[in-house]
Design goal:
Elements lengths: L1 E2 L3 E6 L2 E6 L10 H16 L5 E6 L10 H4 L8 H23 L4 E5 L2 E3 L1 H8 L2 E5 L3 E3 L13 H9 L1 H10 L2 E3 H7 L4 E3 L2 H16 L3 H17 L1 H15 L3 H12 L9
Parallel strand pairs: 3-4, 4-5, 5-7, 6-8, 7-10
Antiparallel strand pairs: 1-2, 2-3, 8-9
Helix pairs in contact: 1-3, 4-5, 5-6, 9-10
Length: 268
């Protein structure tokens, strides 16, 4: 286990658990948060031993979103240079959130209690979202006279559809776990935090037991197809399979089937 000022990283075999770890601040997202977020996900992407990631949080809330007190200095200079500095900082924050999506390993979010504003940006970049029954979400930026700018407005419509998305983005209202499940934002609701963490880790272990290069390829092809369309996506996966289909893991899968045993995939 490793700990810094904002995160705790735990490892269980091929599964990593990255924990938002500012419980006294309800895991509010300040400038350092984004730097550490990017560093962690870049490292997890590069680590050949890690096959799946669980993202969860310590304390009473998953996150209350952007730390407005810490961000206040970004708004103090209203001149042209100050506005350009703000634009660059927003792009930097966007790039940090993008590292979740770019991480080749599937990322499972396990969300409890409040997940507000920038927290929804984080979740939208994850692959799978589970929630405890007390989870509460909001695109709160609208109510703060801010246009959400870290990915929610681009990613969430692709997850839940335009109708649900526009209602939530225009109103900034709260929505709970049951409604999030109804619209497809989360895939499961667990009764409490303990069951939530157990379910997220079980799912991560199930994914981690599969051929890692294949799982990573599925994520890459899915993201490419989403961004470039179905025809380009089909052509892309044809090329990718032509290059990667013949593998030691494929032979292991066939051998395990024939021998009626569980496969042991090596990522080769």
């Amino acid at each position: 286990m490793t700990t810094d000022t904002h995160f705790r990283l735990e490892r269980e075999g091929p599964v990593a658990r990255l924990v938002l770890n500012r419980p006294d601040q309800r895991n509010a997202m300040d400038m350092v948060f984004f730097e550490r977020l990017a560093a962690h996900f870049n490292a997890l992407d590069a680590d050949p031993e890690i096959r799946a990631v669980v993202l969860n949080a310590a304390g009473k809330s998953f996150t209350t979103g952007m730390d407005l007190a810490a961000a206040g200095g970004l708004l103090s200079n209203t001149g042209a240079d100050g506005r350009e500095a703000l634009r660059r900082k927003i792009v930097q924050f966007q790039s940090a959130v993008d590292t979740i999506e770019k991480c080749r390993k599937p990322v499972i979010a396990a969300v409890h209690s409040h997940c507000i504003g920038g927290g929804v940006d984080l979740l939208c970049a994850c692959d799978i979202r589970l929630a405890s029954a007390d989870a509460l979400f909001s695109i709160r930026e609208t109510r703060m006279a801010i246009i959400a700018d870290l990915g929610t407005l681009q990613r969430l419509p692709l997850i839940i559809g335009q109708g649900w998305f526009r209602e939530l983005a225009f109103t900034g209202r709260d929505f709970g776990a049951a409604e999030a499940l109804q619209m497809g934002f989360v895939t499961r609701i667990l009764s409490d935090r303990e069951r939530l963490q157990s379910a997220a880790m079980d799912l991560a272990r199930e994914i981690a037991a599969l051929p890692p290069l294949t799982v990573q390829g599925v994520k890459e092809v899915a993201n490419f197809s989403r961004d470039h369309g179905t025809l380009a996506g089909r052509r892309y996966v044809a090329q990718k399979n032509a290059a990667a289909l013949i593998s030691e893991d494929l032979m292991e899968a066939v051998g395990a089937f024939m021998e009626k045993r569980s496969p042991d995939f090596k990522g080769k």
